[in-house]
Amino acid sequence: xxxxxxxxxxxxxxxxxxxxxxxxxxxxxxxxxxxxxxxxxxxxxxxxxxxxxxxxxxxxxxxxxxxxxxxxxxxxxxxxxxxxxxxxxxxxxxxxxxxxxxxxxxxxxxxxxxxxxxxxxxxxxxxxxxxxxxxxxxxxxxxxxxxxxxxxxxxxxxxxxxxxxxxxxxxxxxxxxxxxxxxxxxxxxxxxxxxxxxxxxxxxxxxxxxxxxxxxxxxxxxxxxxxxxxxxxxxxxxxxxxxxxxxxxxxxxxxxxxxxxxx
Amino acid sequence: xxxxxxxxxxxxxxxxxxxxxxxxxxxxxxxxxxxxxxxxxxxxxxxxxxxxxxxxxxxxxxxxxxxxxxxxxxxxxxxxxxxxxxxxxxxxxxxxxxxxxxxxxxxxxxxxxxxxxxxxxxxxxxxxxxxxxxxxxxxxxxxxxxxxxxxxxxxxxxxxxxxxxxxxxxxxxxxxxxxxxxxxxxxxxxxxxxxxxxxxxxxxxxxxxxxxxxxxxxxxxxxxxxxxxxxxxxxxxxxxxxxxxx
Lengths: 263, 246
Description:
The complex is a heterodimer of chains A (263) and B (246). By secondary structure, chain A is an alpha+beta fold. Chain A folds into 2 domains: 96 residues, no CATH class; 135 residues, no CATH class. In chain A, 23% of the residues lie in helices and 29% in strands. By secondary structure, chain B is α+β, with helices and mostly antiparallel strands. In chain B, the strands form 7 sheets. In chain B, strands 14-5-6-16-15 form a 5-stranded antiparallel sheet, with no helix packed on it. In chain B, strands 11-12-13 form a 3-stranded antiparallel sheet, with no helix packed on it. Chain B starts with a helix and ends with a helix.
């Protein structure tokens, strides 16, 4: 009985849907988090009577055939890279990106990771690091006697040093972007890495053509919308129940047959 | 008397198939752009039926056979996603896709760019425009899809999505993966077909209708099974009485 297996693919798909929704909801307050959605496609069809095949010796043909599908599959869980709200934090090393682009982060294993989470800090040596202590690439070191560090919309980091009137430039923050940013792989800790699907990273200064600009003292919130997530959760739960209903109906029908004849 | 069993069986076989169709519709209740299939049945007159005990006019026996699984192309709910590469089609049209097996058509407008910047579906098949597949470079800036299917970037228009006419849905055969295969050549979509960008079309499966059909099917299958059981019992008691008499 195919209906049993078809409905079970539907239940598995909805289970996956709920997993993704719950991860979105869990990360509602995660800085720079980008929500995911699940993309479903139908499975193969079995044609039991092909449309267009002859219906009589007179050459009439069947207008509509019979083809029965075998359920649903999950093909992708793309991340929606839309902009999240930008909220003020009044912290000098909090940076939000308005528009396209990701910060480049140097991982301890030498790889480069990318993030939208601009909540940076200084480490003991005055280097700009993420909350996990990974260096921001290109590296920026703030001298311990620097005052009023400012980061411009174009990514120029400057500070006033004692005994100097003019602010001194300490470095330049760069942004990376990808042809297919949905193809980036998440590795946790708000970080993404490049894949064969995303294409190579393209780097430029913030504010360049096609790149976003920076805003010091602000952070980008997650782009999760609670209302749509809850609506999708309800839809997923109902769809799961309906697939379960199909399974029990198939079971009852088989039972009706097996009970009908007693030898 | 065997005929009663066989006629009942013919209906049960088609009911099981109908259940398979409902199961597939329900499994795809959240599949983007999915179009449900319905089932129709026909009476199959058994030409060689020979129920001698009845009057000539009543001798014909009618069995049940599946006739067709009709593709229902009615529109699904439109959900706003805000993703600029998502498009929802309005009206009877399908988007042309190039696959290794030839040209296919889809109603699923969740489009993405691949690593080379080519506009593809989630399965990676290039989307066709009036100038073939279209590739964007990172310097092109934001991509917009207009209501008539025209793709444009900051550098100007980049072709128009190729939409085909789906006003006769029975030309299309499901190929899986949200794709349809055309069994006859199909023409361009009628003028006035609109696209909505930043939105996706949900499946047109109506869960209430499917579940009601499911319940109805389940009940009539049960009563049919019961009828067959009664027939069987009748035959059994006939045989045992004949055996006693003999």
